[in-house]
């Protein structure tokens, strides 16, 4: 695969294709002419080996993007450590095993997480630092499960010749994100809090932690483009970061979101709640060198688009119930 044209007619499975990043990726693949299968949990529970085997037999994929995950923000990770570890580990195990058993899979693309990086790793986070310590405890069960799949992918390449790549995106955000305050990540939570405070005339909002932690954010459309470029051009089993290379403190993020939403009230910091890993910023040179990826959307531009979407579409959709944190 050397260009987007080569997706035409290709059979592709996108686990998690009904989720936040998955929907954007699936749309790009279909516009490129791919035949895309999006397995749903009700029909194909990927934590079950039999269901995973049936998916591969019926879809007959040439390329697999494994995006399905049990995931959420700090609160969801704190409340679901066992489920997050088990479901992410089980889904990964089954997808990798069925990909190697199914002889037609040309490439498997695994999407990992910055939560896999050690808590005390030097910033910027470099791919080779993935193994140099334990993750931040709040996110460790999720992060370790995703980290283990990198080892499994290496092992399956060595023993079975299964071609797979692993990508580690920065924190994603954008239109279509999860705005449920119980399970969402920081950007959609802040947007919802600020928008609702403006509408109600509230003069304050509450934000978890002390605001000093820093994060790097990647717009969802950029992330989807990065996945396609990597699938087309990258074959090395070593993980690659996808990001902007820019970090912002949570205090700075709150200020920016408040400005863009028109919230002018007080921000109360709930320091009884966890702050999370102190700093996150990715070293992003490998993605450019190996497959020509650079982020195109600035944080301000992406936040403006996300706020606009939430005000016009997200409010209508947020009432939809779904199992907390399950992204497929």
- Overall body shape: globular
Average of per-residue pLDDT values: 93
Strand line-up of the largest beta sheet: 2-1-3-4-5-10
Strand proportion: 5-15%
The percent range for helix content is 40-55%
Your description of this structure?
- This protein has 10 helices and 12 strands.
- Helix 1 packs across helix 7 (220-233), helix 2 (49-59) packs across helix 4 and helix 6 (186-200) packs across helix 10.
- It is globular.
- By secondary structure, the protein is α/β, with parallel strands linked by helices.
Features:
6-stranded parallel β-sheet; alpha/beta; 328 residues; globular; 14% strand
Furnish the topology, listing elements before pairings.
Blueprint: E1 11-15, H1 20-31, E2 35-37, H2 49-59, E3 63-66, H3 74-79, H4 81-101, E4 107-111, H5 140-160, E5 164-169, E6 171-173, H6 186-200, E7 204-208, E8 214-215, E9 217-219, H7 220-233, E10 240-242, E11 248-249, H8 250-261, E12 266-270, H9 285-291, H10 299-317
Parallel strand pairs: 1-2, 1-3, 3-4, 4-5, 5-10, 6-9, 7-12
Antiparallel strand pairs: 8-11
Helix pairs in contact: 1-7, 2-4, 4-5, 6-8, 6-10, 8-10
């Amino acid at each position: 695969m050397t260009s987007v044209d080569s997706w035409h007619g290709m059979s592709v499975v996108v686990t998690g294709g009904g989720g936040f990043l998955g929907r954007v990726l699936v749309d790009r693949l279909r516009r490129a002419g791919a035949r895309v299968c999006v397995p749903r949990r009700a029909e194909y529970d990927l934590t079950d080996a039999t269901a995973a085997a049936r998916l591969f037999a019926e879809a007959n994929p040439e390329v697999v993007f494994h995006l399905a995950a049990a995931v959420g923000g700090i609160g969801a990770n704190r409340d679901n450590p066992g489920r997050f570890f088990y479901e992410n580990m089980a889904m990964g195990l089954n997808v990798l095993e069925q990909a190697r058993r199914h002889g037609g899979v040309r490439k498997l693309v695994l999407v990992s997480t910055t939560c896999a990086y050690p808590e005390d790793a030097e910033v910027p986070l470099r791919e080779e630092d993935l193994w140099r310590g334990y993750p931040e405890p709040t996110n460790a069960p999720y992060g370790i499960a995703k980290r283990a799949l990198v080892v499994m992918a290496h092992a399956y390449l060595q023993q079975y010749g299964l071609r797979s790549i692993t990508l580690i995106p920065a924190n994603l955000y954008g239109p279509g994100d999860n705005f449920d305050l119980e399970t969402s990540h920081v950007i959609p939570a802040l947007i919802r809090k600020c928008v609702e405070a403006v509408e109600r005339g509230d003069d304050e909002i509450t934000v978890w932690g002390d605001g000093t932690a820093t994060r790097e954010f990647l717009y969802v459309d950029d992330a989807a483009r990065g996945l396609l470029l990597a699938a087309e051009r990258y074959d090395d089993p070593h993980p690659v970061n996808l990001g902007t290379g820019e970090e912002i403190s949570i205090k700075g993020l709150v200020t920016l979101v408040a400005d863009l939403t028109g919230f002018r009230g007080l921000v109360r910091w709930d320091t009884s709640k966890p702050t999370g890993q102190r700093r996150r910023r990715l070293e992003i040179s490998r993605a450019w060198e190996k497959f020509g990826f650079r982020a195109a959307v600035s944080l301000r531009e992406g936040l403006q688009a996300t706020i606009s979407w939430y005000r016009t579409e997200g409010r209508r959709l947020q009432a939809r119930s779904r199992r907390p944190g399950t992204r497929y």
